[in-house]
Amino acid sequence: MKTYLILAWRNCWRNRRRTWITISAIAFAVLLSILMQSLNRGSHDLLVENMARYSTGYLQIRDVRFEDDPSPDNAFEYGDAIEKEVLAMHPDVRMVIPRIQTFMLAADDEGTKGALVMGVDPEREQVLNGLMDQLVEGRFFSWKDGGSGIEPSEAVVSAGLAERMELAPGDTLALIGQGRFGMSASGLFVVSGIVKLPVVEMDRQTVYLSLPQARYLLSAEEHVTSLLLLPRHKRDTDDIAQTVRTKLAGTELTVATWEELMPDLLEFIKFDMAGSYVLSIILYVVIGFGFFGTVLTLTLERRREFGVLLSVGLKRRLLSLIIFLETLMVSVTGVLIGWLLTTGVLLYFVQNPIQLTGDLAESIMDYGWEPILPVSLDPGMFLSQGLIVFFLAVGISLYPMAKIARLKIIEASRS
Amino acid sequence: MEHTNNTIRNLILAWRNLWRNPGRTAALIAAIAIGLWAGVMTVGLVNGMYEQRIDYVIRSDLGHLQIHHPDFLAERDLELGLPEVGKVKHYLEGADGVEGFSERTYADGMFRSARNSSGVRIHGIVPETETKVTNLGEMVVAGVMPDPAAPVRNPMLLGQVLAEEHGVDLGHRVVLTFEDLSGEILSASFTVTGFYKSRSKDMDKMNLYVLSEDLRRLLGREDLAHEVVVRLEDPVTTNSFTGVMQAQFPDLSVQSWDQLSPEIKMMIDYGGVSLVLIMVIIMLALSFGILNTMLMSLFERKREFGMLISIGMSRSRVFWMMMSESVVLTLVGSAIGMGLAFLAISYYSVHGLSLAAFAEGLAKIGWDSLVFPFVTIGDFATISVIVIGMTLLSSLYPALKAFRIHPLEASKDL
Amino acid sequence: MKLTMRKKVAISTKGAFWTAFFLIMMGIEPSMARVEDGQSWQWQESKGSCDRPAREILEQMEDLMRGESSYSEMTMRIVRPRYTREMSIKAWQKGGDSSMILVTAPARDKGTAFLMHDKDIWNYDPRIDRTTRLPSSMMSQSWMGSDFTNDDLVRESDVLEDYTYMVDGEEMIEGELACRLEMIPKPDAPVVWGRVLLWVSAEDGYQLRVENYDQRGELAYTMVLDDIRELGGRTIPTRFTMQPAGKEGEYTEMTYRALQFDVDLEDSFFRRSNMERLQ
Q1: Which of A161, B71, B242, B321 has a C-alpha 20 to 30 A away from that of A23?
Q2: For chain B, which residues make up each domain, given as ranges?
Q3: Least confident among A239-243, A330-334, A397-401, B253-257
Q4: According to the model, what pLDDT value does residue C155 have?
């Protein structure tokens, strides 16, 4: 076997041009198909990231009953001890972000409006979605300045709500609603700051309180309604979810991923991905036909060579084998070079992303997102596309082998 | 005259030349044809996908344009009805290109059953005109839409999901509680006459439909309409129609669907950009394939060219010979490609392309995953030009290489 | 992508019929006021039998519980699987359409007041020193975390007008003969029930039990009235327990501690400004 491999290898390099053309065809095919996947996946990843960061996060631990009844009744205990436990559940959990939230009425002298009241730790939220950076007026709570978090009573209001209720820093706001276990919840708060949230629905109706403040208000001193887990990398999400779910089995808590928390978004992405599968297939067809042309011509060119070899006594089967080995080597080399090339191109796009312009760019920026076309570096793409192109190339190259099997020596020698 | 004759002769010669090697020629023609087909299919598919999404939104609720009191959408204050409903309707009746229009009245309130209560948006509709504008009627999965002629008190259509949550069956009585125009809280009983189902469960839980006349009576004003929604015969006229109408009614807010839903506009623009990128990728694949094949064929024919040059044919003639071959190939390939593409698009634009097979676990609703590709004449022309252009360009390089053939070297090549 | 948020309202019972009785207890229910001298009661019709028109039984029942005005002190106990809460309240009512409730315990809720007039509810919260009118979106929310809703406090459902009723039979409840009445809501009544069963003491005319059924015929809520004693000069049940069907260990229980009928109350008592002063 070894002899044949060496023979095949030498054969390849006897005619450099031919071999290089074939290799480059394969490498280019790999580049293009990965690029297509990368753009598609990149934009989906970005969409998920933006949606997750600004609302549900990637993973949330909640009480099992919370989904059907999202009230403070279904808050669960949370403290330093529990935090440590959760962090220890999986090495890729970077951070834990506690929240307690419920719908209440926000009231001032003019009237009342429904509001989503969220008790948060602004510094941790900042890591997830840059909450503190979205401050447009005033400041966040003085909690971390060494206070109890309960006095003075401060609230940070979303810009849309502030506009609807004509609130500015320094104004007083009343929050009325129901706390844990039916206890009434009400209090007066001084607006310390205003934030502009990128998701319009949230910007219209959100009030942030410090976590201890909200807990006191809702009679849920030791509790939270959800614990967001921030993974080190988005791709760790499912792995973390699985581990945590197992560890939480038998308790009253469960974990949900963004897919379960935002099913509509998931639907949208799946639909889009289905479309891009079809487009990928179209690409493969184009690549395939182009490659076939190359291989066909290559075979024609080598007809004489084959004819001579056969007439000299080389057995057909042996020749087929050698050609096959050539094909394999060329294909492997092509894919490897394709990977290298693609890595270079993608890295370039990571550093210098394709910029969007015009109306589109503006609407994207209104959302608080960057107006770029992102690419994904997921290694899975490399593998899958590499394999597809490899098999495509080898499959198409079977043609010359078939030709050899039927080659009439005399005809071949004449060409 | 002479020149044209020459050109035609060249082309015929090129044609004959090509068929000396049928295999390779066929392969090249196929590649070009497929390239064009691919371009058209891609554009068609992406067009179809976006169209489907937009169309759904327009068809299910938004319409092509809507008219409101300028502050209504921001405040949702029930008092802010359209001040000149009669005039608006009169204008729309007389305007060209209007397929239908309908007025709506809204109230936000609580939906109550024996089991539970939920916050809902109450849509007061006029079923007769509403069905001309939206496809609400098609979304009904059980029972019927509210019907003013039916002997039922305060008929209501609600989302199937909501009904299930509340344990409500057809014919049951439910109570809606909301504030009337003077701010008084009122409760009224409604009879469930039908269930509907849309693509979004969340929307199904939040929106229910009653007769506009019933809602107005309860609110206390017979002529109260918050919104007029319009469907046009030709969607392309949307922007111009909106502009003209807004000028006619400067005190009202007349907005087209993309103004009403900026997210959709963003999605469309984004789609445009990704389409360009995909086309670039596919065209590059095509060009490279052609280039490679032609390079290969150049080497295969080196001896042939070497001989031609050594017997006195000028290099530029060789060049033109190769280019002529490419031109013929391109013309024939494109023609076939256009034919293929035309057939494919004609078929799929009528029968639809089902994406369900390609999506894991997306088989929710059948019509959800059905896409109807389409291309405009302009698209077709553009794609053809691009494909032909790219193909000719790719053949240029190999043809240029022909210049550098050394006859002696060529004959040695094996 | 639109983010839709939906308020999930606390599950609570809205017994239209329960309301009628609650209001009757509080004396808030309007309609036929047949107040005698307030201290002693005379029955005009024969008692001890269920062989009478249903309307008559119902009217007697209403009369028994009403006065031109009343003052009461009650304890409300909310029992849930995970917790139990107790509250003490004082209540005043007059004329059938005005009433005031003051929470006196526990400390956290002390001083909270509710003023019901017509169909509006005003709420005064001493912690924020603010009087708020409850919007329609809050009407279905539970009142103070109990199995009653805010809506129940002002429900305009009139027993006699919203239902058709008939005597269904007789039963013994805790040694007493009770007439069972079946009440069917009229089609246009803003009532969520399919039907309501009601048991009234044949002898003494007070209600003993109420069962609310949904439109599929399934039992939704049961209310039991017991602990019959003399209070405020009348013999009435002083404890009523509201039990949602199928929820073990979950109910709301209200007990009268004190009750006076026909107290002297000015109209001016039922004003928003008075809510703060009640403390």
Answers
A1: B321
A2: 2-57+265-412, 70-251
A3: A397-401
A4: 63
| Alpha-carbon dihedral sign for residues A287, A292, A295, A298 | negative
Name chain B contacts of A263, Cβ cutoff 8 Å.
201
Tell me: ipTM over 0.85: no
Statement: residue C255 has pLDDT above 60: yes
Provide the strand spans (E) within A123-225. Answer: 135-138, 154-158, 172-178, 184-195, 206-210, 223-224
- Label residue A227 left, alpha or beta by phi (over 0 means left) and psi (-120 to 50 means alpha): beta
Residue A196 has pLDDT above 60, yes or no: yes
Residue with tokens 């729309």: B92
pLDDT (tens digit, 9 = 90+) per residue, B309-360? 888 888 788 788 888 888 888 999 999 999 999 999 999 888 888 776 666 5
- Reported as a pLDDT band with limits 50, 70 and 90, residue B411 is low
The predicted structure's pLDDT at residue A253: 92
| pLDDT for res A208 | 95
Domain containing A94 equals 61-261
CB proximity list for A32: less than 8 A, separation 6 or greater: A283, A287, B281, B284, B285
Are A220 and A75 in contact by the 8 Å Cβ rule? The answer is yes
Residue B50 to chain A, least CA–CA distance (Å) = 10
Asked whether residue A183 falls in the same domain as residue A270, the answer is no
**SS3 assignment, position C86:** strand
- Helices A263-301 and B262-300: crossing angle in degrees, nearest 10, is 10
Residues of C in contact with B154 (CB under 8 A): 188
Q: What percent of chain C has pLDDT over 90?
A: 18
Tell me, what DSSP letter sits at residue B340?
Answer: H
Q: Tally Cβ neighbours within 10 Å of residue B318.
A: 20
Instruction: Indicate the residue of A47, A112, A187 with minimum beta-carbon distance to C132.
Output: A112
Which residues in chain C have Cβ-Cβ distances shorter than 8 Å to B167?
A: 214, 216, 218
Between positions 183 and 202 of C, the ones with CB within 8 A of B are 185, 187-194
CB–CB contact A283 B293 (8 Å)? no
**Most confidently modeled range among A176-180, B278-282, B308-312, C1-5:** B278-282
Interface test with C, best of B53, B165, B173 (most C CBs within 10 A): B173
Q: Which residue has the higher pLDDT, A283 or C271?
A: A283
Yes or no, beta carbons of C125 and A112 under 8 Å apart: no
**CATH number for domain C16-33+47-277, candidates 2.40.240.20, 2.30.40.10, 2.50.20.10, 2.40.50.100:** 2.50.20.10
Instruction: Give the end of a domain, one of A228, A245, A261.
Output: A261
Interface-testing mutation among B29, B268, B283, B358, with chain A (most A C-beta atoms within 10 A): B358
- A contacts of C85 (beta carbons < 8 Å): 181-183
Average pLDDT for B141-152 = 92
Per the structure, the count of domains in chain A is 2
A303 pLDDT higher than 90:
no
CB contact under 8 A, B273 and A277: no
C250: pLDDT strictly greater than 60 = yes
C11: which chain A residues are within 8 Å (Cβ-Cβ)?
A: 69
Q: Strands A184-195 and A154-158, how do they pair? A: parallel
Contact of A274 with B362, CB cutoff 8 Å: yes
Nearest-by-CA chain B residue for A298: B296
Of A230, A246, A261, the residue at which a domain comes to its end is: A261
Q: Please provide the DSSP assignment of A250-296 as one string.
A: TSSEEEEEHHHH-HHHHHHHHHHHHHHHHHHHHHHHHHHHHHHHHHH
pLDDT of residue A412: 59
| Domain match, A326 and A308 both | yes
Interface chains of chain B (3 or more CB pairs under 8 Å)? A, C
- Residue C124 makes CB contacts below 8 A (sequence gap 6+) with C111, C112, C113, C114, C115, C130, C131, C132, C272, C275, C276
